[in-house]
Amino acid sequence: MSVTLKINGETRTLDTDPDSPLLWALRDELKLTGTKFGCGIASCGACTVHLDGMPIRSCQTMVGDVEDAEITTIEGIDGKAAEAVQAAWQELDVPQCGYCQSGQILAATALLSETGKPTDEDIDFAMDGNVCRCATYARIRKAIHLASDKMEG
Amino acid sequence: MLHLLQKPLEAAQPSRRTFLKLSAGTIGGLVLAMNLPRSAASAAEGDFLQPFVHIRPDNTVVVLSKHLDKGQGTASGLATLVADELDASHDQVMVEFAPSNPQLYANTMFGVQGTGGSTAMANSFTQYRQAGAAAKAMIVAAAAKDWGVPASEVAVSGGVVSHGSDKSATLGELAGLAAGEEVPAEPVLKTPDQWVYIGKSFPRLDVKNKTVGAPNTYTMDFQRDGLLVATVARAPRFGGKVKSFDASEARKVPGVVNVLEVPNGVAVVADSTWPAIKGRSLLEIEWDDSGAETRSSDAMIAELKEMTAQPGVKVREDGDVDAALEVSAKVIDADYDFPFLAHGAMEPLDIAMMFDGETAEFWFGSQIQTIDHNVAATVLGIPFQNVRINTLWAGGSFGRRAQADAHPVVEIAMLAKAMQADGMEPAPVKIVWTREDDMAGGYYRPMSAHRIRVGLDADNNVTAFKYNIAAKSIVKGTPFEAMLMKDGVDHNMTEGAHDTSYALGLMNMDQTFQETQVPVLWWRSVGHTHTAYVMETMIDRLAKEAGKDPVAYRLEMIRDDPRKANVLKLAAEKAGWDHPLADGRYRGVAVHKSFGSYVAEVAEISFRDDGTVKVEKVTAAVDCGTPINPDNIVAQVEGGIGYGLGAILRNQVTLVDGVVEETNFDTYEPLRMSDMPEVEVHIVASNEPPTGIGEPGTPPIGPAVANAIAAAKGDWISSLPLSKAGLV
To answer: How far apart are CA B661 and CA B655, in angstroms?
Structure first.
């Protein structure tokens, strides 16, 4: 069956089951492997992508349900918040193993797009769904504040 | 991770001649290509190629990392060493994983190629600096000849080679000429005051790729034309076998290519990942549990506790500790138990390979390449030199990828043979473990029980310390046994206790080995994950018994270990130990040596309205010898604290009738952003040789938090995780 998706600004038609997870369509069909498989049950956030700018878990999102939406992955994010986040991540050497960081960056970008000057509580709330087993949380927090400063400057 | 603490081999730098001889001699033409670094495949006239350094005419300096980087920063650390001696510019340096080649790339502390025991920088410190210094000497010699000037007048700085103000060239421009120079046998190393990156700053080389979702980074992302993806249904009980199965529904899933029995289960082979996962869920399998572990973890803990009541294998025996206990004025008894822990790396296990019947190529985060390589050759029945292992970045490991049995290699090799036997055309295949597979798949930090009896005299001086521990041995019965066990003793289990530098009067330590089918493995800091907790909470209890301050008491008790005392004092000072705390705040301290490094941590906690504990701040001091990348040391201690904290708060793997209960992050709840304390790390300046940093941050956090809880409530939690006591 064919499904048409709007991904990173492009319209892509896939020959795939509408009941299959967006995660695997991105990774295996479209070879957009920056979006990661972590848990498969929306408990870790490694598979986070933007759906009309909102962070969602692509492992629990079926392709048939998102045909009309704009989907953005780590490969396609741009704009002021995304650029500030990636620059801050690089400046502070946030990643260790790095496997969760696409999801962290998508979540942080969504947060800063909504809330330009987040508090630590805002960060806890927005980022608690994104697990980092290397526990780079302290740097993620610093990097979000730094990105916020960069967006102002 | 693993402690192959054999006597270090000579950290010899293979010469170019040896390199070529090793590469060509063992192998011949075809395999020459298989055993050379990837970057060397394109090497030609104009390239400078040595085992650890490849300088390209385009002015790129490729450092070959013999170690797996699973987040601990080793690849960038090795590049730092080469770049410093070579006087390269940070911008021109990149890092690539070396192929599996035990002659060229052995860990000098192991004798085989492998990463673990926080040894990466320690074993490479001289070797990689020599490699950089040799390359620089050859570049300088080439420039001198080319320019007709004395070598002593040629300078290299920031990647630019120059003679006065009239001659200048890049490293890349001189690479080809330098390749023809003789490799210096004893390259002169810089003195520490000449270092430009070591001890200062060398930003990580993998950060850019890891912030843009770059392709071809992790095994999970591995792509090849015609790639097949497989999942394997493995026995729900450890040691179970397939009795029979029905794959008719699985085969109906579009994309499923084949279903094959492999020795440890049933593999569903598909053209992509989702059909492999979906197809597997439709398998009907009857398992034979006759040889399986069918006990519950409660029963296994009970057995361990009984074991600690009996004498075991003598690990340390200072004297007649029972007699000393008899005559002591007071005896303190304590029992501890620790659960199985899963590593839970963000990237579940995965491995890819291509087998054409004669040669095999693997792509994965190989942590002990020499074992993986040997096992692959053995299982496939092909010569060692017909196997190529391509090491990829790993999305964490924490010890999980360092298996003695190379089970992921065995599994995929058996699958490749099954595919071949079933008449399938040779094709690249990747086995993906789901989170459930990874979590319920065993290879846990062993559960353990600890029984302590401490004798005190009338003045509360410690006169006797009797310590019985029981757990499944990580190394007994594995290929590591011959290397790591001596006289029947497994020191991996007791490290951090039998070798304590506290003066504890007569100390005896016995160990007893539990037998179970549940596979166990090193988990970030191995034995220290439990011994540090026991020793540092016991010391706190003894301080209280003696009516002394926990820091002052430790300083009195530490014998001949000034570096341990130093980090303790530093952490206490930076944490404001002598200053009063805000209302509702409590603190605890712990100090522990592991992997050659000393770490002290002061944890400051509070309690939420519901009585659960919140770790607010951790102040750490670390002495890991010469600091190579200070910022990475800070990162590893931050991460080590977070990793240990998540585990002691609420992580345990439990079994019911042999079946794992916690199979994903909903029930094995990892540390999250809101749990992460503020962490402050202070590094001791040192000229000692560098020691470990991937693991040593982890052991002190558990006891530091437990001691803070005891400061608040009076009792030390002795059965982990803390959630069992309602504190999480």
So the answer is: 6
Domain residues for the domain of B552 are 309-341+443-725
Tell me the C-alpha to C-alpha distance, in Å, between residue B451 and each of B306, B318, B503, B508. 10, 18, 19, 12
Distance CA B361, CA B334 (A): 52
Minimum Cα–Cα distance from B677: chain A residue: A138
How many domains does the structure of chain B reveal?
Answer: 3
Do B88 and B158 sit in the same domain of this protein?
A: yes
Distance from B568 to chain A by nearest Cα, in Å?
Answer: 23
Is residue B328 domain-shared with residue B375, that is, in the same domain? Answer: no
pLDDT in tens, A10-40: 999 999 999 999 999 999 999 999 999 999 9
The predicted-structure confidence for B40-99, as pLDDT tens digits, reads as follows 666 677 999 999 999 999 999 999 999 999 999 999 999 999 999 999 999 999 999 999
| B567 and B642 assigned to the same domain | yes
List chain B residues with pLDDT less than 50: 1-34
Going by the DSSP 8-state scheme, the letter that residue B196 receives in this structure is S
User: Does B165 map to a domain?
Assistant: yes
Examine the predicted complex and report whether its ipTM is higher than 0.90. yes
Contact B214/A at CB under 8 A: yes
In chain A, the residue whose alpha carbon lies closest to the alpha carbon of B276 is A24
Candidates B90, B206, B210, B616, partner chain A, best to mutate (most A CBs within 10 A) = B210
List b or e across B510-546, with b for residues whose CB sees 16 or more CB atoms inside 10 angstroms. bbbbbebbbbbbbbbbbbbbbbbbbbbbbbbbbbbeb
Q: At which of B189, B211, B233 does a domain end?
A: B211
Give the helix/strand (H/E) hosting B333: strand B330-338
Tell me how far apart the alpha carbons of residues B284 and B250 are, in angstroms, rounded to a whole number.
Answer: 9
Task: List the single best residue of A8, A92, A96, A144 to mutate versus B (max B Cβ within 10 A).
Answer: A96
Q: Say if residue B330 is in the same domain as residue B404.
A: no
Is the distance from CB of B329 to CB of B454 less than 8 angstroms? no
Q: What are phi and psi of B184, to 5 degrees?
A: -65, 135
Looking at chain B, which residue has its C-alpha nearest residue A120? B674
How many residues belong to chain A? 153
Using CA atoms, how far apart are residues B206 and B226, in angstroms rounded to an integer? Answer: 29
- Contacts with A, B 677-706, CB within 8 Å: 678-679
Q: Please answer yes or no on whether B273 and A135 come within 8 Å at the CB atom.
A: no
Return the amino acid letter for A50: H
pLDDT computed for residue B33 by the predictor: 41
CA-wise closest residue to B331 among B454, B228, B177: B454
Distance CA B405, CA B625 (A): 33
B139: amino acid identity, one letter: I
Domain annotation covers residue B157 = yes
Give B639-664 as a DSSP string: HHHHHHHHHHHH--B-EETTEES--S
Question: By CA distance, what is B645's nearest residue in A?
Answer: A135
**The pLDDT of residue A153:** 78
The pTM is what? Answer: 0.95
Quick one: residue B595, left, alpha or beta (phi over 0 = left, psi -120 to 50 = alpha)? left
CB contact under 8 A, B206 and A95: yes
Interface contact flag, B631 A93, Cβ < 8 Å:
yes
CB-based contact, B212 to chain A, within 8 Å: yes
Smallest Cβ–Cβ distance between B396 and the set A17, A43, A97 belongs to A97
Residues of B in contact with A123 (CB under 8 A): 673
